[in-house]
Design goal:
By secondary structure, this protein is of the alpha+beta class. It contains nine helices and 19 strands. Strand 13 and strand 14 form a beta hairpin. Helix 2 packs antiparallel against helix 3. The radius of gyration is 21 Å and the shape is globular.
């Protein structure tokens, strides 16, 4: 078929690549001048499926008494959203495990050279956080992954650059976790997709979609793109909601903000070996080649309005654990990044066909988009082809949101 993919972040590019592998003629529309300029630009790039699933389960259990709808109070359409009563951990684990495997396959088969580092260490300062770490340890092992709890002395031996001035009660280490530069991977895969015949229309802001027997994509002030398409796949992140609304399709999507800062390593001996995650502040510090990236948790967009900046917290955590690790001052090139991140109410992406024939979605991944990108793209391609998937697609279906996907 002749298909249009809206969005050239990691979700859109992997989707376009997998569709092209199935023999479709794919055109990707992207409002910026190149791929991975939004939520895929400077995220943590952590690939730790069991950690992600265990953390999601723990968060779900914590928020369940108040109901997941409380997360979304004040957000558009929150009052009509139906909270999930199911722990999302298992569904996220299936998608993330498959995503990490497919990413490894693509890097190997296409010989993609990306900055990657092995290992993750979760650290905490106060004794009261030890119980939380023990619970995560149990959950991670239940997911089938190896991890170890270790005392502070052993943790400092593994990460010798950890500041001796900062209290350290203990650490949880996942040796099989790894981090990859998401933007670098996305740009390399875009080139591979182009070699397969995918066409990228950069600098094209899609304003609406005209659905019919064949579909039209309207760009830049409702100017119709000259070609028709048999199907359209929305991978536009925060832009998906408005495009779906123009088609009469409503899904409970909400926007959050992600933040990170990236800077060159000042002295390798003062920098982390791989990924260090601060359990209390939920801030991760990762080595990205000759750079360090510090990433915080997703926050509701309105909380950063009025001049409040999350970057102070990122600098504070970095200075706490790895003082002097990055270059600062004039000309140091510290990059502060903010992006809108779209998530669904139950924390799982929506993947599949909407009630409109030929209109497909692969969106709402939240902070998990990087680790689930390759598997969600393969799943969507299987759905378009009417093929069986490697795992059950039901948890990610648009139909799970009664009254929203119609």
């Amino acid at each position: 078929m002749k298909l249009a993919v809206i969005g050239a972040g990691v979700i859109g590019v992997t989707t376009a690549y997998e569709l092209s592998c199935n023999g479709h003629e794919v055109t990707v529309f992207e409002r910026t001048s190149t791929a991975a300029e939004g939520a895929s630009f400077a995220n943590m790039g952590l690939l730790a499926p069991a950690w992600m699933a265990a953390s999601a389960s723990a968060q779900w259990l914590q928020d369940r008494p108040a109901g997941l709808a409380s997360w979304w109070r004040g957000l558009r359409r929150a009052s009509t959203a139906v909270p999930s009563r199911t722990d999302p951990g298992n569904a996220l684990l299936a998608l993330a495990d498959s995503g990490a495997q497919r990413l490894d396959e693509l890097c190997s088969s296409l010989q993609l050279s990306v900055d990657s580092h092995q290992g993750m260490m979760v650290v905490w300062r106060e004794t009261r956080d030890s119980k939380r770490a023990e619970d995560l340890h149990t959950r991670i092992r239940a997911c089938g992954a190896e991890c170890r709890l270790m005392p502070a002395e052993q943790a400092r031996a593994l990460e010798s650059a950890l500041s001796a001035e900062t209290p350290l009660q203990g650490a949880l280490v996942m040796a099989d976790a790894w981090s990859v530069n998401c933007r670098q991977f996305t740009l390399l895969l875009r080139t591979a997709a182009q070699r397969r015949g995918c066409r990228f229309e950069f600098g094209r802001t899609v304003s609406s979609i005209q659905a019919g027997a064949r579909h039209r994509v309207l760009c830049d002030g409702d100017v119709p793109f000259p070609e028709h398409f048999d199907g359209v796949v929305l991978c536009a992140g925060s832009g998906s909601d408005g495009l779906l609304a123009s088609l009469g399709v409503r899904l409970p999507l909400a926007e959050w903000e992600g933040h990170s800062l990236s800077a060159a390593v000042r002295e390798p001996l003062d920098a982390p070996v791989a990924v260090v995650h601060d359990l209390q502040h939920q801030v991760s510090i990762a080595r990205m080649g000759q750079r360090i990236r510090v990433s915080g948790p997703a926050v509701r967009a309105w909380r950063t309005a009025g001049g409040n900046t999350p970057f102070k917290a990122l600098y504070a955590v970095l200075d706490d654990w790895f003082p002097g690790a990055i270059r600062r001052g004039n000309g140091a090139g510290v990059q502060e990044w903010t992006a809108r991140i779209t998530s669904t109410i139950d924390g799982l992406p929506v993947i599949g066909q909407t009630a409109r024939p030929g209109i497909w979605v692969n969106t709402g991944h939240g902070m998990h988009g990087w680790v689930t990108a390759c598997s969600s793209a393969r799943l969507l391609a299987d759905m378009v082809a009417g093929q069986d998937s490697a795992f059950d697609p039901a948890p990610y279906s648009t139909s799970r949101f009664a009254g929203h996907a119609e």
